[in-house]
Known about the structure:
transmembrane helix; mainly alpha; membrane; transmembrane
Amino acid sequence: MTSDPDDFADREEEIVELPDSRIRVIRIVNTLIRFLTGLFALVLVLHIVLVAAGANFGNAFASFVRSFADAVSLGLNNLFTFTNDSLELAANQGLAAVLWLIIGAALTALITGIFLPGGGGTRVVRRRKPE
């Protein structure tokens, strides 16, 4: 069964556009989620680098990074225990960083899937044959 190109010429198209404000709000929310989860992951990785480099945590910046990293570590600070403290920190906070990225991706996909049908496209095209 082959389709004739003229079959599509006889069809009428109805274009349904999603409101621009709704799309804009969802995109802003998704951007904020990606920014925050990316920032949390970045702080965790920065803390790992500072510890590995032997930073002075008496310094205000290094101390801030340590306290921020402890706050966003998802309770994983003592999940793995190794004899090497740097390796232990890298494993625990590295896992937390990866989990933050996964959480951000999952949340944005879920929000987009629920609130923007069609994966976030701006148009839904329905074709029907004239009666």
